[in-house]
Design a protein that fits this description.
Helices cover 44% and strands 18% of the residues. It contains 11 helices and 11 strands. Helix 9 (240-247) links the parallel strand 9 (228-232) and strand 10 (255-260). The longest helix is centred in the first third of the chain and has 21 residues, at 52-72. The protein is elongated. 36% of the residues are buried.
Length: 321
């Protein structure tokens, strides 16, 4: 017996509703025909009625549509079609088309939420990808998974892992060891993700042969990187000039992935961070994607999602900037 259910979504404004519904409600008709649900839109409200599983899919779809509208300022019918595919494929992602890598012949590197699936789609379709979201949403892990997949497919020849060493002011000379040892503490999250997908001996060999390179952001100046995946982690801790310098390192056949959490900026308060600036400047350019993840995409310990939400709920009272 199939359970019927009804839910009501409350939108932020009539303007948001108009953009979500599309010209002459074309997006609503597409959702209705694709998911087999009944939709009634009245002002700021959308009533969704139908079989429980389809209504749940429609609810998740509207969440993703609202996030995409917020991030890019518009929503095309093609965007809605892509999001529909993500929601409908989510029931059977294991080994599916969005799998990035298979570890030990059994473990899959793949998206585990609708937001992560949207991120993976953006990684596959664009040359420059910005992913912004709180801790634990898989920003770094999936970026490394994409890099490993492209390296194994011989689509690229090199992986470059980059992170700003904000705490040391980009002055790493006082730390012991060579440059790899000096920057290692700052790149640990990237290396941890890499270590889950590639065995230690292969990592060592790749690094010796300069196939995998780790570098502080300050050491990127003057370079051009061809046929490479270049990952910049903690992008919110770059200055505007640093971000411009980094993005212009892209050579032919390369893909750049920038991840960051704009709620955890370690720059001096008066310094504008390069991630927010780049998203604002580049959002309308082709082959560039801006993906926003939320606490709903956190895949760490269940408490992490609650912790992030607690801090987010308190933020308006703490900061008035």
């Amino acid at each position: 017996m199939t359970t019927e259910t009804t839910i009501t979504l409350t939108l932020d404004s009539r303007d948001e509703a108009v953009l979500l519904f599309g010209s002459r409600d074309q997006n609503l008709r597409l959702i209705r025909d694709s998911l087999g649900v009944r939709l009634v839109a009245r002002g700021d409200f959308v009533h969704i009625d139908g079989k429980e599983a389809q209504v749940e899919q429609a609810d998740r779809l509207f969440q993703q549509m609202r996030l995409m509208l917020k991030s890019q300022g518009s929503l095309s019918q093609e965007d809605v079609r892509k999001l529909l595919a993500i929601v409908q494929q989510s029931e059977d992602r294991e080994g599916g088309p969005q799998t990035l890598a298979v570890i030990d012949g059994k473990r899959h590197v793949r998206p585990r939420t609708d937001g992560q699936a949207r991120y993976v789609q953006a990684l596959k379709e664009n040359d420059l990808i910005f992913c912004i979201g709180p801790a634990g949403t898989g920003k770094t892990y999936l970026a490394v998974g994409m890099a490993v997949m492209l390296l194994r497919q011989e689509a690229v020849r090199k992986i470059v892992l980059v992170r700003p060493a904000v705490e040391a002011g980009e002055r790493l000379g006082f730390l012991p060891g060579d440059i790899v040892a000096k920057i290692n503490p700052y790149l640990r999250p990237l290396l941890d993700a890499l270590g889950e997908m590639v065995d230690p001996e292969s990592i060592r060999r790749y690094m010796e042969n300069d196939i995998i390179e780790i570098a502080p952001l300050a050491y990127m100046r003057g370079r051009t990187l061809n046929n490479a995946v270049i990952i910049l982690d903690e992008g919110q801790n770059t200055t505007v000039p640093q971000m411009k310098m980094f993005l212009t390192r892209m050579g032919n056949g390369s893909k750049i992935i920038v991840t960051g959490d704009v709620t955890q900026v370690d720059l001096p308060r008066q310094t504008r961070n390069g991630l927010n600036d780049a998203v604002h400047r580049l959002r309308d350019l082709e082959r560039i994607a801006m993906v926003y993840l939320t606490e709903h995409d956190i895949v760490r310990h269940p408490l992490v999602q609650k912790i992030v939400k607690a801090y987010e709920d308190d933020k308006p009272r703490k900061r008035k900037e």
